[in-house]
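Journal club prep — side note

Before the paper discussion, L.F. wants everyone to see what a predicted structure for a comparable chain looks like in token form. Sequence:
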Amino acid sequence: MGVSERKKREFAEREENILSCAISLFRSKHPSLVKMDDIAKHLEIGRGTIYLHFKSKDDLMARIQYEDYLRLRGRLERALEEKTAIGMAKKALRAYIEHCLDDKQMYLVAKQCGDNMNIQNVSDDMRTLLKNERVIRLSVLEKIYKHSKSENLINNKGTYPNVAVAWGMIRGAVEVLLDGHFQNEIKSEKSYLETIEHVLFYGLFSNNTKGDSL
């Protein structure tokens, strides 16, 4: 291995170490309370070394969120392997829930990074990656919607209103668990997840309930 290749490998390894250290610290403390100096101290490197890899702390947080989005999309894309639209939708629903709940702390870290970063302090390359990843992720959901539309399973309100409402419902329902709401009332997480699926696909009210009577 040549000197150039070795330096590239060492650079990549150090970058991964910085990311791993930041995530570890963010798991125990809110990202807003962790400084670049804290990361440098844990890794026993100079703060300036971190800036060789990341333009700013916001850039570092954007990278953490971006990689979390990549993991999520990997799960969502597997839903497209299903033969029917309803199969795709149910698998995508489960994929998102599992992504959030399999490692609750990691989901919260990525969310907190996204909520607290200043996009203006993020490098142009990373902003482009985040933007492109969002487009690709939405295209997966759009494909599921179009399959549902072609099978006459969905309303005519439009792709993104439907996708946005469904996404918001699912995310909100998951965060009820993550935030600890109804922790005394929700006895079974498995039953709760089945309820999310039922309400999303079949509605909150029974078939004999008229919406206009409310």
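L.F.'s comment for the group: The radius of gyration is 21 Å. Keep this in mind when we get to the figures.
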